Amino acid sequence: MAWNMNNIDRRRFLRGSGVALALPLFGSTASSSTASSSTGGDEVVKNPKRLGCFYFPDGVPMPLPQDPAYQDWSWFPHGNGNEFTFSKCMQPLQPLQGDLTVLSGFSHPKSRDVHGHNNADQFLTAAATGGGDREYENTISLDQAYARHVGDRTRFSSLVMSTDGGIGTARGTHTLSFDRNGRPIPAEHRPKQIFDQLFVKSDGDSARRLGLSRSALDDMLADAHSLRQTLSTNDRKSLDEYLESVRQAEVKVEKAKRWLDAPMPQLDGDLPNLELTTEEPREYLRTMFDLIYLAFKTDSTRVATYQIGRENGVGRSDHLARAVGFNLAHQLSHETKNPDGWKRFGIYCQFLNEEFGRLVSKLKETPEPAGTGNMLDNTLLLFGSASSAFHLSRNYPLILAGGKQMGFKHGQYINHAGMNFQGGPWLGKGEPWQDEAKGVDVPLSNLYVTMLQRLGVATDRFGDSTGIVENI
User: Are 17 and 97 in the same domain?
Assistant: First the structure.
């Protein structure tokens, strides 16, 4: 079909400096024709506070206590408080037991009655994004709430990464990060592109391009002001929401201009292999963690998210199980009824724990570049999933590590679930998420409020929080 561009209504576009920005379709017109010491800034932060959030899909091994596999392959530790022991599944984290807290019995209330594969979208937001007839709507994520607080004190407000890249689909996200309007922030999955963004100087034409970008944005916003007067109330709201993304781009352009002449951070030692793909799963995962470590060490950013895998066995991230000799990661969660099924699933989770533990160890072994203690003391890491037993959207498996200089006390297992947990293998009939809950979970947003407060954000609310988490 041939399009006659002369018949397209001008008000469907905002124009600026030779750039046309397409607008949403409006009902009322449808019938119409800082800076930091390590990056060249002038502000020295003695102990910068950092946040890293990591997500893995498909839940965790949850054999019932009467199952012989319970002792060795249950993801959650055995015990409570300061008296607990790790299973083989968690064994790689044993040397770091004093630097982390394991939590059970936490989840987001708005997602407890939906299929677990729908929930990565809300892991850091607590929004009602679940399945059924619900209209998809999201809110700001935890990392972006903190990124707004950090502002322009670093070259990049946040680093958004995933193994699959992009944004994915509604309820099938490839990103953990959502802006203040609930829109997904695309994640980068290519190690070289992440490295170049962080450490390779832009070419000499960057200043000219940024100047053109700013000029275009100015013209577009002026055009939008004129357009707004012709729209209905509902369409004005849609336009305002849409233009928020333009304003965010404007902020990014201004920030990029301020950092344009600042020297790029220098790296010591060997560089990671940047040409990896998920066909080399262990090395790929390790490199992605290493890039976050380097970004934190050079104070290029203080906020990072990494979605290790997409839910429901879709995408390249499902190949990570090949690091430990299995084919597809999602398949392991379906086969726990088979001989050694719990063990096989546990070995895969052991691999994820090992690589996460390696990042924790590197931060712990690195003295704070511009302050006291080590980097882990000033870095808060959240590692977890939005389902526990087979497709169960309750009792999220969670690990909180680091942040001792923010007041966090570790070496404990906060076991709100107790023995009232749901689990066992899937036998091909009803699933745990469809069963009546055996206990009452604590809103995970309570933990998020606690984290934000220790990170220096003046807030007493996030999502559907009802308070904070004491004794942590």
Answer: no
DSSP class of 14: E
Count of domains observed in the chain:
2
Is the overall model pTM greater than 0.85, yes or no? no
Take residue 36 and report the two structure tokens written for it.
């930091």
Residues 6+ apart with CB under 8 A from 390: 59, 62, 116, 333, 334, 336, 425, 426, 431, 432, 433
The answer to whether residue 38 is domain-embedded is: no
Q: What is the mean pLDDT of residues 424-429?
A: 82
Q: How confident is the model at residue 217 (pLDDT cuts 50, 70, 90)?
A: low
Residues 6+ apart with CB under 8 A from 87: 71, 72, 73, 74, 75, 77, 78, 346
In angstroms, what CA-CA distances link 173 with 44, 87, 186, 216? Answer: 37, 31, 10, 31
**Residues 318-338 pLDDT 10s:** 999 999 999 999 999 999 999
Rounded to the nearest angstrom, the gap between the alpha carbon of residue 295 and the centroid of all alpha carbons in its chain is 16
Quote the pLDDT of residue 39. 41
Range of the domain at 91: 49-200+270-454
Q: Does residue 432 share a domain with residue 391?
A: yes
pLDDT value at residue 229: 73
The answer as to whether 40 is a domain residue is no
Closest CA to 294 of 304, 282, 308: 304
77-128 pLDDT, tens digit each: 999 999 999 999 999 999 999 999 999 999 999 999 888 899 999 999 999 9
Question: How much of the chain is helix, strand and coil, in % rounded to 5?
Answer: 40, 15, 45
> If DSSP states are collapsed to H, E and C, what string results for 199-218?
HCCCCCCHHHHHHHHHHHHH
Note whether 116 and 246 are same-domain residues. no
Domain shared by 316 and 173, yes or no: yes
Secondary element (H or E) of residue 131: none
